[in-house]
Amino acid sequence: MQITKPRVAEALYNELLSSYQELLCAYQGQPDESLRERATEIGRRMIANDVGPDVLLAIHHEALKRCPAPQDGERLARAGDLLFEALVAFTSAYRELARERKEDLMRLERYAKALESFSHDMLRLNQELQAQKAELSQSKDELQRLADQKSDLLSTVSHEIRTPLTSLLGYGEFLEEGLYGELDPQQIEVLRRMVQGGRDLLELINNLLDLSKLEANRIDLHCEPIKISILIANAVEKIQPLAQRKGVALEALRVPDDLPLVEVDAMRIIQVLVNLIGNAVKFTEAGGAVSVGARQVGNEVQVFVKDTGIGIPLDQQKRLFERFTQAENIKRYGGTGLGLAISRELIALHNGRIWLESQPKEGATFIFTLPVWHEPS
Question: Are 222 and 265 in contact (CB under 8 A)?
């Protein structure tokens, strides 16, 4: 079996290898209890330096090759005993972490329930504010005051919950990956649902924050000339794991070499692309395909996201870019109905346009334009 050298600081790796090699060669020649204790100490030192058992296995493998005596059955058995002693330190440490994190898991369950309730309250609050906005449409000053209050409230509340939520999601993902010990199947399923619910809530919070900034004209663009192919590749890379899990072929089509640069805020255009590509993958069944490309049309660069999904009825396409709006045939897939509305506003800030071409059961193509960048004379 080939052991790959893990990623660890070279100086630390060599120091640990030297110590362990000296210990291993001595123990193979003459087993001694003091040598076993030193092996456990090496394991503890690795834990203190945030080095995992994979590094220990690599060091053990390399040290075996460097010990001068032939490796017969007895010497290999002694080597295994010594490795076991070193691993005991990791076992004890992980067992202690598991005990400490059991309470964290229970706390995550409580937070997940609280966050779910808070999400409903947030949506209800937004609906109430929208209703008030419609009732006061005749009074411009009053309407503006309420809109400002809503934006400030959403920004404040969203910020206050986003920070702890991000931390909770991080711990949840650590638990999913087994970093704090093994979980039984029931715990894994509960944890999976909690983490997914947290991600959905975080997406909602981020959308609400963006929406409130757009309404208050508080989004500043940081534009610079860039190749659109770079932005497409970045967005496709972000969505590729989702497409692979769902069994959808996701492809970034080759962009012509002579395609002009565009002057855009790269982060915001990637946000639009991720939203469009993510939707395409979500609404395309396993075995389908999603392609992303760009072309020049006149003085604009057109970017398109094409899928073989369920399509959008013609009578519902015009309303699709409105806030909190979804086509009837895609509501079963979930979502907040904010992504396309935010994408439309971001493209408009870049002096571009966005639209779709679709027929039911024949897929959909979302297209947006960006002005070609002209170098100052």
Answer: yes
